[in-house]
Structures are given as structure tokens and as C-alpha cells.
Amino acid sequence: MDQFDNVGIFLQLVAMFLLLIKILTTCDCTGISGRTQALLALSFTSRFLDAPYEFEEHRPIFVVKSMFVTLSYSTLLLIYYVWRSTYQRDLDTFRWELATGACMTLALLSSTQYWDSLVTIMWYFSVYIEAVAIFPQIQLSQKTKYIGRSLFAYVGLFACYRFFYIVHWIYLYLVMGQLSDPFLMVAGTAQCIFTSAYFVWMIKAFNSQYHSEYPYVVRYDLGSQECDDFKDKDLSVIVK
């Protein structure tokens, strides 16, 4: 790994940590897609099937992989169990089964020469499922007309994470003469485009505080001391 790869991993971990802290401190999952988080958890689980084998020889890598899995499932626990009353389940309706089916089909087609390796097939699957994991979140935001500041930071960090991975691939090719997996590059670039477009859309929503063209609700996150009575607070600023 080079410095660009490391920066990308760090930004992704920071994004996941910030989202988890946001839910813990506000006791609220409003505007957060549980299905996006579930797809990400599925992606990390599929990608890191080899983690137990790296415990002895590559412990730092094992720790990083464990952090991804732990953060993703901790977020799911908060959304679907601890504060499920604030989760907008009726609006979070993206057809995840279609996405997973399509991604598994692509994974099998991409790894025809590795069908004897479950780890390789699931690695390709994880790459594809991560690329489309942002779709449920986009759909939920469009339905609720709601943009949280913590979610804004989360999406921005995810866009930056994929950008640094693209720079990493360019660096490998220009400096080291190595060409990364073409399927990985296509999926990663698509994910960067999807996430960046969503981030730009969110910027326009925030700017709607001063323009009437984008009537979205902008959320001001509460502090931890207000968790117990957050439902009685005036939590939102309705953009007019």
C-alpha cells in the first residue's frame, strides 16, 4: 500500500466512526438509511473473509479489517434495535435483494477463472455491492427532503475516500507500472461518481437555506445531554 491507499482507508474509517458517534450522541437515526448500512456491512463481511488467516502474520491489517466490520455492525445495531423508533423504515424501501442478486451475478462473471476460490468470488461481490450501497441513502434523502449535517460529513468523507483510491490506482500505473484489477477500477470509479454526485446534491440542499429553489429540511444535531428529551425539541430548520 502507498500513502494514497492509506489515506483512503483512514477517511473511510473516520466517516464510519463519525456516523456511529452521531447516532450515539443524538439518540436519533432520522435520515440515515439502514439498508445502506446493511449493504456496507455485507460488503465488509464478504471482503474480509480472509481476516482470521492474517491474525498471526499481518496483525495491523487484521485490526483494520476488524474495525470496519465492528463499526458497520455497531451502526446496524443502533439503527435496527437500540433507536429503531427513530428509523424511517417505511421510507427506506430500496430493493436491496435486486442489488445483491445483480452484484453476485457480476462477481461470478468477473471471477470465472477463480470459481474454486470462495474468497475471490466474495471479494468481487464486496466491490460491486459497495459501489451501489449509497443508492438506498440517496433514495431516502429524496423522499424525506432531509439532510443532516453529520450525514453531509459522512458522504463527503466517503467521496474523498474513493477519490484517493483512484489516485492510488493512477500512482501504481504511472510510477510502479502496475495495472490494478479492471473490474475493481470500474466499480470504484462508479462509486466515486455516485457518491460525489450525491454530495453535490447535498451542498445544493444546504444552500437552500438562502434560496427557495430547494425546499429541504436541514437538521441541527443535538448534543448528548439532550438525548432523553430530543423528541420535544425543535430539531429542524425548514428551508423556505
Q: How would you characterize the overall build of this protein?
A:
- Residues 210-214, 222-226 and 229-240 have low confidence and may be disordered.
- The chain starts with a helix and ends with a strand.
- It has eight helices and three strands, in the order ααααααβααββ.
- Helices cover 65% and strands 4% of the residues.
- The chain has a three-stranded mixed beta sheet.
- The protein is mainly α and 240 residues long.
- Helix 2 (34-47) runs antiparallel to helix 3 (59-82) and helix 5 runs parallel beside helix 8.
- One of its GO terms (cellular component) is endoplasmic reticulum membrane.
- Its main location: endoplasmic reticulum.
- It is a multi-pass membrane protein.
Average pLDDT, all residues = 84
- Amount of beta strand: under 5%
Coarse morphology: globular
Low-confidence stretches: 210-214, 222-226, 229-240
Number of helices: 8
Family: Belongs to the ERD2 family.
Pfam family, one: ER_lumen_recept
Membrane topology: Multi-pass membrane protein
Transmembrane segments: 6-25, 61-83, 95-115, 121-139, 151-171, 183-203
